[in-house]
Design goal:
single chain, 334 residues, alpha/beta, Rossmann fold, Glucose Oxidase, domain 1, 14 strands, globular
């Protein structure tokens, strides 16, 4: 039976930071890998960090676009999480299917064994719900096959999950080249202001999908981060409009919109509308008049470079003129 809607947890619970000798459990709550050999790179990088691994029983199963049936994927999540030999849970990848598991998860059982849990994209459904149902700080960042993609991503990933110190001020990755900088700029001020609150957010598609259900994200008084991938700007517009109409996004303390990789008009490979705006134009039109700081372009989510954000910890966002300071001021692990 579904519980009634639960929002901000009464108590924040911090997992123990991973350290050398620990074991991570690798599961596939969403889609599976197209090439199973990709995991060989994951094993090599885990070894470099001194970490061991344990695989979910159903890791390589397939059911439509999912990594096995809902029951199989939920079984792996519960079994790996509750395994006393496992110190952290690392999903294989995103894709699709994580929201289908929510009615099958025993959140009270997860709460009895708080562990490091990191993922992004489709994993938004699990991250936000586990955090709000248990109080556990969960991490929005690279997964098993992506934490080693760039030095920037790897640095912030290890800083977040293998340390008990605050992540601190978020810096930007060095540009790959000076003559043709990547758009959007990493810190485009949409609305000035100062905001402080606990972090919540994730992939916009999933945040929108959970709205109106017992699992929707509570954004009241929070620093909200949103991003997406391969969505047409008009679809970003629809999703932001839905959140503004039906959620408490208007009560957020500040909003970070990630770079939204592959979201320029026509880049999604879907039907391009003749009067499509840019994501920048949509963000400015939808979010600039809320009376809170709004920043667009930070490297979080689906881009090559991505920093890791801990859900539930205190952060501050300062946006003045062209200057932006985003600081994760509280430790996320013990």
């Amino acid at each position: 039976m579904l519980k009634t809607k639960e929002t901000t947890p009464a108590k924040i619970v911090k997992p123990r930071a991973l350290r050398k000798g620990d074991t991570v459990g690798i599961i596939a709550p969403s889609s599976t890998l197209f090439q199973e050999g990709e995991l060989e790179f994951t094993y090599q990088w885990l070894q470099k960090l001194g970490l061991k691994w344990k695989l979910g029983k159903h890791l390589f199963e397939r059911y439509s676009e999912y990594a096995g049936s809902d029951e199989a994927r939920a079984e792996d999540l519960m079994n790996i999480w509750c395994d006393p030999e496992v110190d952290g849970v690392l999903p294989l990848r995103g894709g699709n299917g994580a929201p289908r598991l929510l009615p099958l998860i025993d959140f009270e059982l997860l709460a009895k064994s708080p562990k490091m849990f990191v993922g992004y994209s489709d994993l938004t459904a699990l991250l936000t719900t586990i955090h709000q149902r248990t109080g556990l700080v969960c991490f929005y960042g690279p997964m098993a096959t992506s934490f080693y993609k760039t030095s920037y991503s790897h640095r912030y990933w290890t800083k977040a999950i293998m340390s008990n110190r605050p992540i601190g001020v978020i810096t930007d990755p060095l540009p790959a080249q000076i003559w043709k900088p990547a758009y959007p700029p990493p810190r485009m001020v949409i609305a000035e202001g100062h905001g402080r609150g606990r972090l919540i957010g994730g992939c916009l598609t999933l945040i929108k999908q959970l709205q109106g259900t017992p699992f929707e994200a509570d954004m009241d008084g929070k620093i909200v981060f949103l991003e997406d991938v391969h969505e047409e700007p008009h679809q970003i517009d629809r999703m932001l409009t839905q959140l503004l109409l039906g959620s408490n996004l208007k009560k957020a303390a500040g909003i970070l919109v990630g770079e939204c990789a592959g979201c320029t008009p026509g880049e999604s490979n879907r039907r391009r509308l003749s009067l499509n705006h840019s994501v920048e134009a949509v963000v400015r039109e939808r979010l600039s008049n809320l009376g809170i700081p709004v920043v667009y372009g930070l490297r979080l989510g689906h881009g090559e470079d991505q920093f890791t954000l801990p859900l539930g910890v205190m952060a501050t966002l300062e946006a003045r003129g062209t200057a932006v300071k985003f600081k994760i001021e509280e430790s996320a692990a013990h």
